[in-house]
Amino acid sequence: MTVRFGLLGAGRIGKVHAKAVSGNADAVLVAVADAFPAAAEAIAGQYGCEVRTIEAIEAAGDIDAVVICTPTDTHADLIERFSRAGKAIFCEKPIDLDVGRVRACMKVVEETNGKLMVGFNRRFDPHFMAVRKAIDEGRIGEVEMVTITSRDPGAPPVDYIKRSGGIFRDMTIHDFDMARFLLGEEIASVFATAAVLVDPEIGKAGDYDSVSVILQTKSGRQAVISNSRRATYGYDQRIEVHGSKGMVSAENQRPVSIEVANGEGYTRPPLHDFFMTRYTEAYANEIAAFIAAIEKGATISPSGADGLAALALADAAVKSVEEKRQIPVA
Amino acid sequence: MTVRFGLLGAGRIGKVHAKAVSGNADAVLVAVADAFPAAAEAIAGQYGCEVRTIEAIEAAGDIDAVVICTPTDTHADLIERFSRAGKAIFCEKPIDLDVGRVRACMKVVEETNGKLMVGFNRRFDPHFMAVRKAIDEGRIGEVEMVTITSRDPGAPPVDYIKRSGGIFRDMTIHDFDMARFLLGEEIASVFATAAVLVDPEIGKAGDYDSVSVILQTKSGRQAVISNSRRATYGYDQRIEVHGSKGMVSAENQRPVSIEVANGEGYTRPPLHDFFMTRYTEAYANEIAAFIAAIEKGATISPSGADGLAALALADAAVKSVEEKRQIPVA
Amino acid sequence: MTVRFGLLGAGRIGKVHAKAVSGNADAVLVAVADAFPAAAEAIAGQYGCEVRTIEAIEAAGDIDAVVICTPTDTHADLIERFSRAGKAIFCEKPIDLDVGRVRACMKVVEETNGKLMVGFNRRFDPHFMAVRKAIDEGRIGEVEMVTITSRDPGAPPVDYIKRSGGIFRDMTIHDFDMARFLLGEEIASVFATAAVLVDPEIGKAGDYDSVSVILQTKSGRQAVISNSRRATYGYDQRIEVHGSKGMVSAENQRPVSIEVANGEGYTRPPLHDFFMTRYTEAYANEIAAFIAAIEKGATISPSGADGLAALALADAAVKSVEEKRQIPVA
Amino acid sequence: MTVRFGLLGAGRIGKVHAKAVSGNADAVLVAVADAFPAAAEAIAGQYGCEVRTIEAIEAAGDIDAVVICTPTDTHADLIERFSRAGKAIFCEKPIDLDVGRVRACMKVVEETNGKLMVGFNRRFDPHFMAVRKAIDEGRIGEVEMVTITSRDPGAPPVDYIKRSGGIFRDMTIHDFDMARFLLGEEIASVFATAAVLVDPEIGKAGDYDSVSVILQTKSGRQAVISNSRRATYGYDQRIEVHGSKGMVSAENQRPVSIEVANGEGYTRPPLHDFFMTRYTEAYANEIAAFIAAIEKGATISPSGADGLAALALADAAVKSVEEKRQIPVA
């Protein structure tokens, strides 16, 4: 069976998913929609699909699933519409910046028996998957301490930041999900600190650019997250899980892994420049998992509930910074 | 412009090239031929191309280029036929196991104004390309000593070995080409030692499984090659170039790069299992370079002359083992 | 000039310092005292020094300096006595578990014009010193985020834990000092979480074995500390400092750095087994710095004030765990 | 028991051994002799020993063992004299540059029941010892291919080179010994290439600065050696042993192992600057092994026979370069 896709949104992340869908032998990209016709046409030209309106994709008989890559504030509405239209839905994170709106949206998905997958791509990175597999196989015993380092090469434009919901909901949310993926137990409390060290404009926009977070589960397992909007050496993405019998870690990836030695020392090139190149395989695996779940009628993961849980942690982090205390989460 | 391909040979390496051609936006795989219809049909089914005879591909008006992946003893004949038919030719190494036959074949290519690229895939590996780039940029000064380690995870079947021309012409030939690629000067002499340490059956078939080679250029630059048909830890592929101002090296690649630590120590997973997975990017880049050369009418590299030069080094290595002395090469 | 030493306390850490003093060309170990004569005699036999009482060392005309390695609850008294006796004092951390007692002791040191160095050995590790040097040279720009991972191979006996002042004052105190050493700005607040994951007996003794800490400076710089009383792979001691222009890190050290590769992967041996072997060079450098400061009449660092500052951070961490909030520090 | 030492020769390597002897709890350095009184006095001052003549050390009743660090052309005579005087002898390599002279000297040692250890320090490096231990424990199965990379940071003065016996007898000799140490089987043939790539003055002095060697045992095991008199990145000392069940390797060592990351990439500092710092532990272990053998009356290793075997390989390498062929060794 081939799953027939419509792509909603032809921007930066839309292109990533267009490539992943087109490269999958079990999928075909049928149509793309975007408010900017030129963006949609660029993808249509490259992958040989049609440009349609969102309404046309909604009504189409030749489309089984959609990938939602439109601006965040449209996600929840689109999920509801396409769930009602009976399409399987892959939606980029977050579903919405408001927990109440997410809950309402999930209710519609449930009532319409919808299939919804949320785009936490890192769960599908082969290295992070191997970390999780090592845990599942008992190679490190009981998980005790998780360390997540996540630094962007540079800050996004301040305009983007203003609409982003803030660093915790925009950037740390991936690390919240990764912590949940690795801790093996639900998180009970959040403590966060935050500062503006990279760019004062980010502070003027009401956001932070450098944050540290401690998450704790009921039994006392801890996860530490370190985020910065700046890393001169590339896109820094590391995880380490320490357990009762050992430790497992995934180091950074490089596009080219040579080493040059001279009187200055031994130098390896910088890391990948950003997520589009770092997570190429993850995006391909993610869409493959979505397709496999559709074909087998299997439970979809990560689900809307996973999206909601990560958002709740982000909300708690914001509150923790404001109130300078540990915030319990349900 | 899209280059239209015919694939000759649907075996293990044929599949690798079918994938590389199909994944290239500037190419289309039109037809595949193989003596075993089932093999051809498998590729046709997977990539949506036709099964044709070699003769039909030769005569086809809708095919611009062919990839020759048939058994070695057919390469030279096919190159001549398709060069006469006006198709651009990508041929897996070697052109032939006999230097005289290679020369005769190259004469035909020249007379028919043919375009011939020989499949030394490692030149297109992104890591080895970066090594060469570092040299070209002068980062290590003048090249002095090249070290190439190349070990297969396991030996091929003895039947294959009997037809292979021996380890120097079958396996080391890639390292001879890599040495030429990196030394920056033609090789003037070859010294080789060889032994049977892995499997006595290989010795009974008249071949070796463990060899060491020293190549020297006229000015005294040296390359050392270490080969084994066995490596329990995966497909071992390393190069190091030492120069007057520094050193550059490319380490092995892994499909998954996690590390597990416990009382036994720190363990990273084995290397790639073999060339199909290790050199995925190299095969894609190689076909892309072939296509680019066709489209731009540029000189093709590595050429038939490169194939011939590597074969001459292999012949010299065989002679060196037999005569226990350094063999000069033209 | 040769500095003549008396050693107070001949236990585990006393032996470490006896070796460091004896190996220093500018020092001589004259006498050792311990409540257990056998322990003192062992050191006297090995290094060719005398066994004396503490009182005799206090009164001795042939001793310029003492190294205090007795139990923690004697440190402050001994510092006061030997400061009054005009000896230069190197004291193992902590001066006392009570901030008030430390302040009183430091007052005596000040009044007697004493020379006091506190044993934060990690500041003298060559790798960590190189990290600090890279920061001082401006190689990473302004410090933004410090990450300290510090895990003991195994927990000490519960009896020790009961007298230790708890994990923050006994173990994390080294990391608090290292954070101060690296942040380049005084710490303004402490947040800590703590749990018992390793051994329930530790919990019964009123202590924790797994803790995470976030420190923040006034300008917003952050340090994250991850501690565990268990690490199956050896004594885990890493630091990483992220700045506006780059990052500098010091990896773990191994006594033997070979690698064995086979079908299971690539395995390096475990880390050093504990501080005595991991910090051999640090202990030697530390005593050398103490001697150099005595000889040059230079300011001693780390000083009693550094010991006090680290203890105040430990106290704040305890309070943070109890009150589940960020604790400001003066 | 304490072994009482005399040191013959107070130059660069003499200082290294003075430190090793003085740092050993079972040894005492009693006297030092050197043709340059100032050199001897420097060591005497630093380690608190006497300056004596060679004759006085020979006749001394308070000296059990000597360390010979004088110029190479005096080694054989001194070994004979001190063997007759009943002293245990540690002699820096080589015993002599002439195989016949070495044999004659060893005969005297044998006749006088002498104890002679030859200074192949690398056998005592903890990392290389661990490589050998891994082999002995069967972790890599049967040894098949050994790779030794050995590059000096810079060439010695041409005056030294003229007296050195040439690169094979001066520098490669250590690698010949290491190959013997690791191959587990005697070497049957030598092939060597050599060139002048670093400094034409070395060529004018009749020597080479860049050499590659292949050694082969009777059963076909191979060792490859790569030498250069130049390495801009420090003292390059690596070994790798490939066997039927796996591989074991020892990487280079660094005095400081930090890493700085920025837009240029990830940089680690250069290697140790030369053997005095790289092999500090090896020199200490070597003297400790010599002392232990004396105390236990055990067989001394590496012995004069090991020195002779390495020299014979060096002679064969010289001949191989001259005759461009593989040279059999007895």
From TrEMBL, chains A, B, C, D:
Q: Name one GO molecular function term.
A: nucleotide binding
What the entry lists under InterPro entries is as follows: Gfo/Idh/MocA-like_OxRdtase_N, GFO_IDH_MocA-like_dom, Myo_inos_IolG, NAD(P)-bd_dom_sf
Q: Which residues form the GFO/IDH/MocA-like oxidoreductase domain?
A: 128-248
Concerning SUPFAM superfamilies, the annotation shows:
Glyceraldehyde-3-phosphate dehydrogenase-like, C-terminal domain (SSF55347), NAD(P)-binding Rossmann-fold domains (SSF51735)
Which keywords annotate this record?
Oxidoreductase
**Annotated ranges, domain Gfo/Idh/MocA-like oxidoreductase N-terminal:** 3-120
Could you tell me the EC number(s) of this protein?
1.1.1.18, 1.1.1.369
The family this protein is said to belong to: Belongs to the Gfo/Idh/MocA family.
- Membrane among the record's keywords? no
Q: What is this protein called?
A: Myo-inositol 2-dehydrogenase/D-chiro-inositol 1-dehydrogenase
List, alphabetically, the Pfam families matched: GFO_IDH_MocA, GFO_IDH_MocA_C3
Looking up Gene3D superfamilies in the UniProt record yields:
Dihydrodipicolinate Reductase, domain 2 (3.30.360.10), NAD(P)-binding Rossmann-like Domain (3.40.50.720)
